[in-house]
């Protein structure tokens, strides 16, 4: 479970951000800025970050506060699931994916992420799950997140050589790319991105393709 102080700080930040977007009164705007400072102080006091860094993250957010959207591609081949090493999380394994970009349909964002991180071209064919990050053991995060998992069908079982070369030259986020059988799933998963329970559930979807999408 997430600590209660983080939930309080996140809600204060969201209310202040939304208030700054709608309210033009200079006096009220000053109060909302102070609320952002309080939320940043709370997070800095109970985490390994500092207030200027947290306040800087808050400053990147604008408009009506809404959850961020993390999309993940669930790709199977010969009853094995596609995972990548996440360099930004100590080389732990995860489903390929990342933040959705504005102007992209959810399925389009997912297949783009799969291609960029693995070199495999895919097509999104089914929504498997829409989860609230807080409710599924992903660990704490400064912002609210919705996690969207799509079953993606391989269009070609061979990786794009151009994308492999591009990864080798300018690679930042992910490294090794492999398919794993259900009894081979690595123990060192990037839990902020995917959990063992979720991977087990997606294998159930593979065995029972008529299962409805999970949510919440």
Describe this structure in words.
It is a single chain. This protein has 216 residues and is of the alpha+beta class. It folds into two domains: 4-59; 68-215, Nucleoside Triphosphate Pyrophosphohydrolase (Alpha-Beta Complex), CATH 3.90.79. It is 39% helix and 25% strand. The protein has six helices and eight strands. The chain has helices spanning 4-22, 26-46, 51-59, 106-118, 161-170, 196-207, and strands at 68-77, 80-86, 92-94, 97-99, 122-132, 145-154, 174-180, 214-215. Strands 1, 2, 3, 4, 5, 6, 7 and 8 form an eight-stranded mixed sheet that branches. A hairpin with a 2-residue loop joins strand 1 (68-77) and strand 2. Helix 1 runs antiparallel to helix 2 and helix 2 packs across helix 3 (51-59). The chain is elongated. The mean pLDDT is 93.
Secondary structure: number of strands = 8
Q: Residue share in helices?
A: 25-40%
Quote the average pLDDT: 93
Structural shape: elongated
Number of separate helices: 6
The CATH architecture of the largest domain can be given as Alpha-Beta Complex
Order of helices and strands: HHHEEEEHEEHEHE
Decide which structural class fits the backbone. Answer: alpha+beta
| Main sheet characteristics | 8 strands, mixed
Strand content: 15-25%
Low-confidence segments: none
**Through-space gap between termini:** 15 Å
Assembly context of the chains: single chain
CATH topology of the largest domain: Nucleoside Triphosphate Pyrophosphohydrolase
In the CATH scheme, the class of the largest domain would be: Alpha Beta
Number of domains: 2
What Rg is obtained from the alpha carbons, in whole angstroms? 19 Å
CATH homologous superfamily of the largest domain - what is it? Nucleoside Triphosphate Pyrophosphohydrolase
């Amino acid at each position: 479970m997430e600590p209660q102080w983080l939930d309080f700080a996140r809600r204060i930040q969201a209310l202040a951000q939304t208030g700054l977007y709608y309210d033009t009164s200079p006096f009220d705007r000053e109060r909302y800025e102070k609320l952002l400072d309080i939320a940043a102080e709370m997070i800095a006091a109970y985490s390994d970050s500092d207030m200027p860094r947290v306040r800087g993250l808050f400053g990147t957010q604008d408009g009506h506060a809404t959850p961020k959207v993390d999309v993940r591609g669930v790709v199977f081949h010969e009853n094995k699931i596609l995972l990548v090493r996440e360099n930004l999380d100590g080389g732990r394994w995860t489903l390929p994916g990342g933040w959705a970009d504005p102007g992209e349909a959810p399925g389009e964002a997912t297949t783009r992420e799969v291609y960029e991180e693995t070199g495999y071209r895919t097509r999104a064919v089914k929504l498997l799950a829409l989860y609230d990050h807080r409710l599924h053991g992903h660990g704490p995060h400064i912002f609210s997140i919705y996690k969207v998992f799509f079953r993606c069908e391989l269009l070609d079982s061979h990786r794009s050589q151009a994308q492999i070369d591009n990864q080798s030259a300018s690679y930042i986020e992910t490294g090794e790319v492999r398919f794993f059988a259900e009894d081979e799933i690595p123990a060192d998963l990037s839990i902020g991105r995917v959990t063992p329970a979720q991977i087990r559930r997606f294998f159930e979807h593979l065995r029972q393709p008529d299962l409805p999408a999970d949510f919440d």
